[in-house]
Specification:
This protein starts with a strand and ends with a helix. It is of the alpha/beta class. The strands form two sheets. Strands 3-4-2-1-5-6-7-8 form an eight-stranded mixed β-sheet, with helices on both faces. The protein has 16 helices and 14 strands.
């Protein structure tokens, strides 16, 4: 059986190039699981948007093909700022050539947010779309409290970085085009891989005739191999929190700042809140928005860490806190659960599907509610028995969900069913 993957994330035969924070390595982790399936041959295609041309890589069972799509010249750059149609047309054309050359039995597309999903209208072999996030939810969460337009969102950059302001403003206008394309892809395609009640519900909303297969998310090998496990910490007056991911508006950095300020001003705790994946430059616009300085409330931007260092920082924290406005099944939460950490997370998208039925639902907090979030953080920190219970629960469900053999069976069964259609 030959399966052709289309991935937005660049992949390489060099495993070191496939790692990253917040789940950027999950597709490469799934790739390693897929390569363990007997009689499966994989061809992986990705869009290379860097100015450096990439070449095809190949082994006996795996071929990785880049589509080099970087466009040069002022005219092309300006046109691409206005619409993605020309790039889409080029990618579809190149993809169809690759399909014709490789003659797969099945096409597996990661994400509905890029143009790959349009391929189903051009081919006869089954095409299954693996839902990641959904652009409709992301667009719905672009504006933060206190912002009514995209101009409000980016006006802090207007005087300091005018070119950057217009580039970002235009990019987010382009996102409407992506949103509409994604809706069309959801309506037209027949087969989808989902993993939460949220992504299944949204797919069903757009497409009542869709056939949905459940395939869980693979975690990075460093987490799977980790033998260490979170333990409660003894420092009564110090509160160490951790959040992971790129510091985008949809991840709730404004909520982190406001929550940290509330805890600092209303309790006796010394707060240390580590943001792994964000840098000092990222948090500045949210400091201006909230009028809260990160340094003054104990928020430390850690930058991008490798998996080993990230595990160390997670295990040395009191709990994991996820403040996102928009998510499906964030790897950041899954990785914290896999280490056996107590987790407080916003009840958005498919996040609640990551927790067991008996998990304390009071730890699933509303979006943009720093007051309730602060109260739950203090409550959990002061209740060792609850923290241990939640940690045990997370450990058990994460080790079941992310078991490589289980995911391998889910993937293989899905492929076999699709090839029989």
């Amino acid at each position: 059986m030959k399966v052709l993957w289309f991935s937005v994330t660049p992949l390489s035969l060099n495993a070191k190039e496939n790692t990253g924070i917040e789940g950027k390595g999950w597709i490469s982790s799934l790739l390693q699981i897929a390569l363990g399936i007997k009689d499966l041959k994989l061809v992986v295609v990705y869009g290379n948007q860097s100015p450096f041309k990439k070449e095809t890589e190949e082994t006996d069972r795996l071929k990785i093909i880049p589509i080099n799509i970087c466009r040069y010249g002022k005219r092309q750059i300006i046109k691409d700022m206005m619409t993605s149609r020309e790039v889409d047309d080029f990618v579809i054309s190149e993809s169809l050539k690759i399909i014709q050359e490789n003659k797969p039995d099945l096409i597996h597309i990661f994400g509905a947010e890029w143009c790959y999903g349009m391929l189903a209208s051009h081919v006869t072999v089954p095409v299954v779309i693996h839902i990641q996030g959904l652009w409709s939810q992301i667009r719905n969460s672009l504006l933060l409290p206190g912002q009514s337009t995209l101009f409000d969102r980016f006006k802090p950059e207007l005087w300091n970085h005018p070119l950057g302001f217009f580039a970002r403003y235009q990019y987010y206008n382009l996102s409407m085009e992506r949103h509409r394309r994604e809706e069309e892809i959801l309506r037209r395609n027949k087969y989808f891989m989902c993993r939460t009640r949220w992504d299944q519900s949204v797919v069903r909303f757009y497409n009542k005739n869709a056939r949905i297969f459940h395939v869980d998310e693979a975690l990075r090998q460093e987490f799977i191999a980790c033998k260490d496990r979170w333990q409660p910490h003894a420092e009564d007056k110090k509160l160490v929190l951790v959040t992971t991911g790129a510091c985008y508006s949809i991840k709730g950095p404004d909520v982190v700042l406001k929550t940290a300020k509330l805890i600092r001003e209303n309790t006796g705790y010394q707060v240390e809140w580590k943001w792994i994946g964000g840098i000092d430059e990222d948090i500045k616009e949210f400091e201006k928005l909230t009028k809260v300085k990160a340094q003054e409330v104990g928020l430390k931007m850690m930058g991008i860490l490798n998996a080993t260092d990230m595990i160390r920082e997670l295990l040395s924290s009191d709990m994991y806190v996820h403040t996102s406005y928009s998510d499906n099944s964030p790897n950041a939460v899954c990785e914290a659960q896999y280490l056996g950490m107590p987790v407080i997370a916003t009840d958005t998208g498919g996040v609640i599907s990551l927790f067991s039925e008996q998990y304390d639902k009071n730890m699933m907090v509303p979006m943009n509610d720093p007051f309730y979030l602060a109260s739950k953080i203090i409550e959990l920190h002061e209740d060792d028995a609850k923290a241990k219970c939640l940690a045990e629960d997370n450990w058990a469900i994460a080790h079941q969900r992310h078991d490589a053999e289980r995911i391998s069976k889910q993937l293989k069964d899905t492929y076999l069913q699709l090839c029989e259609l």
